[in-house]
Amino acid sequence: MATKNNSVTEFILAGLTDQPELQMPLFFLFLCLYVVTVVGNLGLITLIGLNSHLHTPMYFFLFNLSLIDFCYSTTITPKMLVSFVSKKNIILQAACMTQLFFFCFFVISECFILSAMAYDRYVAICKPLLYMVTMSPHVCLLLLVGVYVMGFFGAMAHTGNLLNLTYCADNLINHFMCDILPLLELSCNSSYVNEVVVFIVVAIAIGVPIVTIFISYAVILSSILHIQSTEGRSKAFSTCSSHIIVVSLFFGSGAFMYLKPPSILPLDQGKISSLFYTIVTPLLNPLIYSFRNKDVKVALSKTLRRK
After folding, report:
1. What is the pLDDT of residues 82-141, one digit of tens each?
2. Rounded to whole angstroms, how far apart are CA atoms 99 and 79?
3. SS3 of residue 7 by DSSP
4. Residue of 240, 250, 288, 245 whose CA lies nearest to 110
5. What is the CA 257 to chain-centroid distance, rounded?
6. How far apart are CA 91 and CA 120, in angstroms?
7. Percent of the chain that is helix, strand, coil (3-state, to 5)
């Protein structure tokens, strides 16, 4: 990928901080977090794959959520770690745009797979007798294709928007990755139109899933309140609690970062917000679904005994 009329062929990533005394401690901290993220997500993927009783629509989507978390964490974290141990973390322009594309693809895909998981919970709680018919393998596959198609088109829109810009002299990206807003700020010909494109794409990528999730859980809550037994209510709430925690973490940090104009949110503050959905969320997702999910804990116990 290359931009037209550019004098800049490479960028320098500023990293998370420029304080020398923090570089090595942060390197080992984020290296440990990345290892836990990789082990957690690949472990959950393996666990679901090896245990046939987890081959249900809920775990089909959880399998793909873990795959997406692993992929976009791997897209960002290794390059960020380089900034802690090198004087200049240089990235070629083509590599920068490639990182941006895959980052957008996986993040937008995660938005929509979380909404697909909310729909799955809605069918499971509100229409339990029709669950296996409504969430048939064919329907699940169609939903998954839709997730990745939305991710692809969203990533193409963001990347194409930035590829049309010109980067003249300054090539220092004030971030630990090639993100949308820092690149817009760096361009010498970005306009209000470019910011509007970013806002519209992000509003769709965040807005449509949030509306789907909100409607699903509004109906779920209404159904739960009509359940007579306390045990039934408790079971229904516990079924949804893990998903609600993940959704709150992911969409909260993403909306805070992208649904504000760059002039309102300073980029240094944006770096901290970015950490939540690039580092913290992929780390916590497998932990949340493992520790709060009885089926996963039983499957883990059986797998370990088998080994």
Report:
1. 888 888 888 898 999 999 999 999 999 999 999 999 999 899 888 888 998 999 999 999
2. 10
3. coil
4. 250
5. 13
6. 41
7. 80, 5, 20
